[in-house]
Amino acid sequence: xxxxxxxxxxxxxxxxxxxxxxxxxxxxxxxxxxxxxxxxxxxxxxxxxxxxxxxxxxxxxxxxxxxxxxxxxxxxxxxxxxxxxxxxxxxxxxxxxxxxxxxxxxxxxxxxxxxxxxxxxxxxxxxxxxxxxxxxxxxxxxxxxxxxxxxxxxxxxxxxxxxxxxxxxxxxxxxxxxxxxxxxxxxxxxxxxxxxxxxxxxxxxxxxxxxxxxxxxxxxxxxxxxxxxxxxxxxxxxxxxxxxxxxxxxxxxxxxxxxxxxxxxxxxxxxxxxxxxxxxxxxxxxxxxxxxxxxxxxxxxxxxxxxxxxxxxxxxxxxxxxxxxxxxxxxxxxxxxxxxxxxxxxxxxxxxxxxxx
Amino acid sequence: xxxxxxxxxxxxxxxxxxxxxxxxxxxxxxxxxxxxxxxxxxxxxxxxxxxxxxxxxxxxxxxxxxxxxxxxxxxxxxxxxxxxxxxxxxxxxxxxxxxxxxxxxxxxxxxxxxxxxxxxxxxxxxxxxxxxxxxxxxxxxxxxxxxxxxxxxxxxxxxxxxxxxxxxxxxxxxxxxxxxxxxxxxxxxxxxxxxxxxxxxxxxxxxxxxxxxxxxxxxxxxxxxxxxxxxxxxxxxxxxxxxxxxxxxxxxxxxxxxxxxxxxxxxxxxxxxxxxxxxxxxxxxxxxxxxxxxxxxxxxxxxxxxxxx
Lengths: 357, 309
Hints:
The complex is a heterodimer.
Chain A lengths: L2 E5 L5 H25 L4 H10 L5 H26 L7 H18 L8 H27 L3 H21 L34 H18 L1 H11 L1 H6 L4 H28 L10 H11 L4 H25 L5 H16 L1 H4 E5 L7
Chain B lengths: L1 H32 L7 H19 L2 H25 L4 H20 L13 E2 L9 H5 L1 E2 L1 H19 L1 H11 L1 H7 L3 H27 L11 H11 L4 H23 L6 H5 L1 H14 L2 H7 L13
Antiparallel strand pairs in B: 1-2
Helix pairs in contact in B: 1-6, 1-9, 1-10, 1-11, 2-3, 2-4, 2-9, 2-10, 3-4, 3-9, 6-7, 7-8, 10-11, 10-13, 11-13
């Protein structure tokens, strides 16, 4: 008996929708096995992971605000991934956005006005864009691999943030803690629901989803991105500029990641600290793939991924399990998503190959 | 004399800092020569580092720790192998998944070992040779893993370019269809190459957690797996250049500490960006000549293979 893969004559539409569901189910099954192995009641653990966080209004607010940076980063990345442009440095662009936007709040310390928050968001977006444009420029001009350069620049951005909050930007009245002054209230994202942390960054993320959706499905440039990604030879023949797609993908994804950074900082901590993200920029890569690089898919996937962050915290608080469970789940989920996709183009056949005469 | 001692200390530290990169990059070189791009080095290194560390704590024997790290690295690489080779998933995305998974899993299993002290590997002085002035302490008074990394480099160079098996492996990386047509099992060879890369990544991780800084800390590889990937491009897929590049990066990694030790008032955060900025600079310089990269890169690199007949 042999299990083998047989190419489908056409890729399966049904499997395109079913495969993320299969992947999610496999992750849950693996979770049950993992929790059992840890000696925890798996049903209690799954309940604590997936349901418990959403049993309060505050929890639902947390769900939304953790989904926000994931969604902003992933929706931008999904454009590049469609165009076969691999921006792995969203985490760095997010950090740069937070630095630039936060820098605005600090620069205008003492002379704030209602214009502060919009200015912070714009400058944050530009900061992320600028940081993202570096790998794109190096790719276009010098053919340097964008995966490696964007990732290296992430480490640089994080160290740079560390330098700023330990050094020149440290709060002068902060007892030498490595953090900046708290921004003025004009620099805070407005709250949408009282007594939660549910802030207006969510609206920015939803706007981004709609804009990207229109861009990808209704504009010629969006169409070109897809062609360059799927059929580079055809794109070259049609005269579409691959370099333009590279730069555009990085500018959009970098800008959105920058907005994610400033939205996170002004919405939840209202100051700069050495660590401002638990890896949203990396998790966004998983979100983009889990969402099949489609805006609506990415929206749903960011909600699932956000729930995983909350679930990890909930497990830590209620069952005393390590927070790192979240990372294990994220990795497994992405494995299963990628693995299940094989079912779209191939079907599984059991039995020996039938020899044709 | 003092200047000499400092220079010698810097060179020895350079070799130590470069060794994990030698292990990881040499393994990835073999994997890529077979036509597979595994971006999951960072994840495999972390799993190797944590497994090697735990095995050393439990057994008290660092050599068993090294063995455990090799096996763990191979096991992790098999996940990548099954997905990309048997299920034909996208190699870039799967490698990223492996890194994310490795970071999470290693943090998870190593949690109760953070801060546990261990005895690292002691240097083994080679008799007679190690008593040569300057050269002795520089080359002949290291721990066994450094000698092992040099041996690995020699073996891989010999295997790839002087043996029939190495020729077949390169053929698979250049044109999997042609290799398949001649009758070689492309998938089997690629599985072996991926597992070899996993084993050396495990070794690279073990070097970090058992020798370089004998302890376990979450995410302790700090991007070295990615630097190793850049090194392979930098070396245009040639083992000797990988070795040179690894020590060059080792030097850049440690020089910041020495600058600070000499009393220069530079932020340690800014100094820590040096290896990453250097990687970008090196990639730019090497990749500028697109033809050179195209000629040297294995032609089937990153392309999935589905045997049709």
